[in-house]
Sequence to fold (206 residues):
Amino acid sequence: MSASKILLVIVGFFVLLGVIVVLWTVGSYNGLVGQKQAVDSSWAQVQNVYQRRSDLVPNLVATVAGAASFEKSTLTAVTEARASVGRVNMQMPAGAPTDSTQLAKFDQAQGQLGNALSRLLVVSEKYPDLKATTSFRDLQSQLEGTENRITVERGRFNEVVQSYNTAIARFPAMFVARLGNFQPRAYFTAQPGAETAPKVDFGGKF
Fold:
């Protein structure tokens, strides 16, 4: 084989290798983009279900406040916790957070609101007339469903984050992730009893 043919073979090999590398890089990048979008979409759904709970608070407070001698401190705690959630939400990024501290603040604020609502529901047990109202029962059903959705969406979020974080850490895709500035996303940290949605059955015992 002549030197020119050998040179052509070598050049052709490197051209083919270059094409393969480019195609792999593009495919890896697009795959990571898709996973990142899935994380952000899941995060948006988490925010939606938390917002649904927050939106129920004014009606719940208004309904409960109509009960004679209802504990004002309990209503105040719920209102203040909801306001704290609003302040934290304003500080959250558009997409899923990369800062675990920031996510922890979000989770803490939501946890405080959940605890305040649980306390309100416990106190409501003392008011049979209040529990008998249609509006109160409707709010019970909506809140119970929302708490269940929160548990489900948090679990789904952690699953897609795990998949994404694993993808950007794998070799050799990690090089594409670094070039594309794909940052790891933070997980929700499980709290004691987090595997069970808060009980909000007005007709049962707490």
About this structure: The domain at 3-179 is CATH 1.20.1440.20 (de novo design (two linked rop proteins)). The radius of gyration is 26 Å. The CA atoms of residues 9 and 155 lie 53 Å apart. Confidence is low (pLDDT under 50) at residues 192-206.
